[in-house]
C-alpha cells in the first residue's frame, strides 16, 4: 500500500488543532518543528490549512516548488541544513496570495493525497498544522492517518 510506504519512516505524528482561528497554531507548529530540529530530530510539517497556508511564509520558503519523484511529491526542505521537510498547498498555488475556494470533496482528496503521496523519508516527527475549527479537513486528516501510529494532538487555546 502506497500510504504505508510513504509514512513508514515517520516515528511520531502530532496534530496541532484549535476550535478557532488566530490562536497561533501555525506559529506553534513552526516553533515546535524548529525546536525539535535544534534538538537533533528529523522533522516534517504537513500544512493542511488549505485556505490559509502560512507556514511556507513563516519559514521563508514561499517561493519554493514541489517536485515529483518515483514515490510521489518531494517536500520542500527548509534551512541551510535542509533539516525540516515541508508540504503545503502554498507550493501548489500560482501566486502565494491566491485564494483556495474548494468544496469538501476536493479538499478531502488533496489531504488524502498529501498523506499518501508525499515522500517524507525518515522522520522522527511529522507535525500536522490544521485549519481552524472542526471541519471536514480535520476528519479527512484523521481518517487518512488512521492506519499510522499517531503520537497525539496539541490543542491550542486562548484565555477567553
TrEMBL record:
<dbReference type="InterPro" id="IPR000808">
    <property type="entry name" value="Mrp-like_CS"/>
</dbReference>
<dbReference type="GO" id="GO:0046872">
    <property type="term" value="F:metal ion binding"/>
</dbReference>
<dbReference type="Pfam" id="PF10609">
    <property type="entry name" value="ParA"/>
</dbReference>
<keyword id="KW-0547">Nucleotide-binding</keyword>
<keyword id="KW-0408">Iron</keyword>
<dbReference type="GO" id="GO:0140663">
    <property type="term" value="F:ATP-dependent FeS chaperone activity"/>
</dbReference>
<keyword id="KW-0479">Metal-binding</keyword>
<protein>
    <submittedName>
        <fullName>NUBP2 factor</fullName>
    </submittedName>
</protein>
<keyword id="KW-0067">ATP-binding</keyword>
<dbReference type="InterPro" id="IPR019591">
    <property type="entry name" value="Mrp/NBP35_ATP-bd"/>
</dbReference>
<dbReference type="InterPro" id="IPR027417">
    <property type="entry name" value="P-loop_NTPase"/>
</dbReference>
<keyword id="KW-0411">Iron-sulfur</keyword>
<dbReference type="InterPro" id="IPR033756">
    <property type="entry name" value="YlxH/NBP35"/>
</dbReference>
<dbReference type="GO" id="GO:0051539">
    <property type="term" value="F:4 iron, 4 sulfur cluster binding"/>
</dbReference>
<dbReference type="GO" id="GO:0005829">
    <property type="term" value="C:cytosol"/>
</dbReference>
<dbReference type="GO" id="GO:0016226">
    <property type="term" value="P:iron-sulfur cluster assembly"/>
</dbReference>
<keyword id="KW-0004">4Fe-4S</keyword>
<dbReference type="GO" id="GO:0005524">
    <property type="term" value="F:ATP binding"/>
</dbReference>
Amino acid at each position: 500500500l502506497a500510504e504505508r510506504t510513504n509514512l513508514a519512516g515517520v516515528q511520531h505524528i502530532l496534530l496541532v488543532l484549535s476550535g478557532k482561528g488566530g490562536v497561533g497554531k501555525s506559529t506553534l507548529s513552526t516553533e515546535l518543528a524548529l525546536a525539535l530540529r535544534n534538538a537533533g530530530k528529523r522533522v516534517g510539517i504537513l500544512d493542511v490549512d488549505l485556505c490559509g497556508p502560512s507556514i511556507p511564509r513563516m519559514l521563508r520558503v514561499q517561493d519554493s516548488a514541489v517536485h515529483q519523484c518515483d514515490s510521489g511529491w518531494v517536500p520542500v526542505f527548509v534551512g541551510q541544513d535542509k533539516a525540516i521537510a515541508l508540504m503545503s498547498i502554498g507550493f501548489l498555488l500560482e501566486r502565494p496570495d491566491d485564494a483556495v475556494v474548494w468544496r469538501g470533496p476536493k479538499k478531502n482528496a488533496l489531504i488524502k493525497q498529501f498523506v499518501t503521496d508525499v515522500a517524507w523519508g525518515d522522520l522522527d516527527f511529522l507535525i500536522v498544522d490544521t485549519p481552524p475549527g472542526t471541519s471536514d479537513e480535520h476528519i479527512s486528516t484523521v481518517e487518512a492517518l488512521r492506519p499510522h501510529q499517531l503520537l497525539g494532538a496539541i490543542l491550542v487555546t486562548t484565555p477567553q
